């Protein structure tokens, strides 16, 4: 009898006014608690002012969502139902990531979503996520799809929508004194506001991508100035934070091999972003710019160097060289190598260098070694030095020590990879050799209940942008500057590599070079 009563309730038509009010109220209560929580803890108003601001935001949110829902349903009908159902599921998914990973759904986060492979995104799929989406997304979506609605007349639509808009404007004017505060916190407020956080920022990201030039801005022509045989291996690390490297004072032995390497230079560095696309772009570009300049591999290749890009990752700017090789390509080329981990990037490395017909060789290895949320899947079992481990961030939230163990094991594996590269280059005495390791960004491991990376730079904790920068060169190859800044950024890589490859160029900036000219 109870189930029959529910069915009858769903079959009973309700007015579009009631339907829109229910959807608006549910959107606020189910998906926007983090928004109001942020306002309550960050407003600089007194008790009465805080209460007035919160009440005003409740009114504005309810009326704006009511207005949009009413218009969508009235004008789009079944397509509107489907759109509202999809938004309910996305709202639930966004809320899960806000609550679980302390992320903000801003332009950066949406850009990361658009640039994430399924292989990495699937690591987030777990029963907690599906249960959360089922409870907070699927059930509201079914209501939007199945609940019969009486649309009413156009006259009523104009009346309700006009009244809602008028009240919103009046309430907004009553809070005009909060304009400065809202401007200061617009990133956070917009990032927590559902569904407008992902709607607005998705439009913004798509617009930016469409506005980008199809081809990068070409740099001035350069030239190679000597015939000495030189190889530079640039290793772009993933989510490696300086704080967990033994070489930077971490108390755990996460760099047992590199700590014994002779001639290894340890530099203090910071990333220019907290996500892969921004970090890799900064590593490969000559200066900080919103424009897409010709990245380092393309420029070195066009200048006459032999350039190889091997990737177990993604998120780099467009690479226009003859030998861009993915992990899948390498697995076919070297079937005997372990295709599951980053050491695949090292397969046949010395042979590839030796067979080059050019005197200048640049090899870029783009790793994925410390990418979350499943750090424990990023290294072979024999590198599981610190135990027990959390197998994902959700598990790690309940036991941060286990999450740190898994992450530290990924750093031990990174240590092995870099040591392997140096040992490959060291005996090649008829070449000038150099290895540079720099991470794209850092990582949060539960500090202040923040996990992973991707927060806006102005909000990010230092562990998300303090990164390792390690350099090894063969004896007598290049001398380091003695007057380097205490902390350097990722743009030093571009100019330092030009120096190592003896590329003379108007794009070269000696001030952003770690070596003497």
UniProtKB/TrEMBL annotation:
The chain crosses the membrane at residues 12-31, 51-75, 82-104, 124-146, 158-176. Residues 232-502 form the Sulfatase N-terminal domain. InterPro entries: Alkaline_phosphatase_core_sf (IPR017850), EptA-like_N (IPR012549), PEA_transf_C (IPR058130), PEA_transferase (IPR040423), Sulfatase_N (IPR000917). GO terms for biological process: lipopolysaccharide core region biosynthetic process. Residues 66-207 form the Phosphoethanolamine transferase N-terminal domain. It is a multi-pass membrane protein. Pfam families: EptA_B_N, Sulfatase. GO terms for molecular function: phosphotransferase activity, phosphate group as acceptor. Its main location: membrane. GO terms for cellular component: plasma membrane. It is found in: Cell inner membrane. Coiled coil: none annotated. Keywords: Cell inner membrane, Cell membrane, Membrane, Transferase, Transmembrane, Transmembrane helix. This is Lipid A ethanolaminephosphotransferase. It comes from Xylanibacter ruminicola (Prevotella ruminicola).
């Amino acid at each position: 009898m109870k189930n029959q009563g529910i069915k009858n309730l769903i079959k009973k038509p309700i007015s579009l006014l009631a339907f829109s009010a229910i959807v608006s109220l549910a959107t606020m209560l189910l998906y926007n608690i983090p928004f109001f929580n942020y306002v309550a803890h960050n407003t600089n108003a007194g008790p009465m002012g805080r209460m007035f601001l919160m009440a005003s935001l409740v009114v504005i949110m309810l009326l704006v969502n009511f207005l949009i829902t009413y218009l969508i349903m009235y004008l789009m009908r079944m397509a509107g139902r489907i759109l509202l159902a999809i938004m309910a599921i996305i709202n639930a998914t966004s809320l899960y990531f806000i609550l679980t990973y302390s992320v903000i759904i801003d332009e950066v986060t949406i850009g990361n979503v658009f640039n994430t492979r399924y292989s990495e995104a699937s690591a987030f799929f777990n029963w907690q996520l599906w249960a959360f989406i089922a409870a907070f997304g699927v059930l509201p979506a079914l209501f939007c799809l199945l609940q019969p609605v009486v649309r009413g007349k156009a006259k009523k639509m104009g009346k309700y929508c006009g009244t809602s808009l008028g009240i919103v404007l009046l309430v907004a004017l009553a809070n005009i004194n909060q304009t400065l505060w809202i401007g200061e916190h617009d990133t956070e407020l917009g990032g927590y506001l559902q569904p407008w956080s992902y709607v607005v920022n998705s439009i913004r990201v798509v617009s930016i991508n469409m506005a980008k030039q199809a081809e990068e801005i070409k740099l001035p022509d350069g030239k190679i100035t000597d015939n000495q045989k030189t190889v530079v291996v640039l290793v772009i690390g993933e989510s490696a934070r300086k704080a967990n490297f033994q070489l930077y004072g971490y108390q755990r032995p996460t760099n047992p091999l590199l700590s014994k390497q002779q001639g290894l230079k340890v530099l203090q560095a910071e990333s220019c972003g907290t996500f892969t696309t921004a970090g890799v772009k900064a590593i490969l570009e000559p200066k900080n710019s919103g424009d897409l300049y010709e990245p380092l591999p393309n420029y070195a290749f066009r200048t006459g160097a032999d350039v190889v890009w091997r990737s177990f990752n993604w998120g780099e700017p467009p690479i226009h060289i003859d030998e861009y090789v993915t992990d899948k390509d390498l697995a076919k080329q070297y079937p005997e190598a372990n295709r599951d981990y980053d050491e695949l990037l090292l397969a046949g490395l010395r042979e590839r260098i030796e067979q080059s017909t050019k005197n200048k060789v640049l090899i870029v290895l783009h790793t994925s070694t410390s990418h979350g949320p499943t750090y424990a899947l990023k290294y072979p079992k024999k590198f599981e030095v610190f135990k027990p481990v959390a197998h994902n961030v959700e598990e790690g939230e309940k036991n941060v020590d286990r999450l740190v163990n898994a992450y530290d094991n990924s750093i031990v594996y990174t240590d092995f990879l870099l040591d392997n590269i140096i040992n490959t280059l060291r005996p090649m005495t008829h070449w000038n050799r150099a290895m540079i390791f720099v991470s794209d960004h850092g990582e949060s491991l539960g500090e202040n209940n923040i996990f992973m990376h991707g927060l806006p730079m102005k909000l990010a904790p230092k562990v998300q942008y303090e990164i390792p920068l390690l350099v090894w060169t063969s004896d007598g190859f290049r001398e380091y500057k003695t007057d380097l800044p205490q902390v350097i950024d990722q743009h030093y890589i571009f100019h330092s590599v030009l120096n190592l490859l003896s590329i003379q160029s108007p794009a070269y900036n000696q001030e952003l070079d770690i070596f003497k000219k």
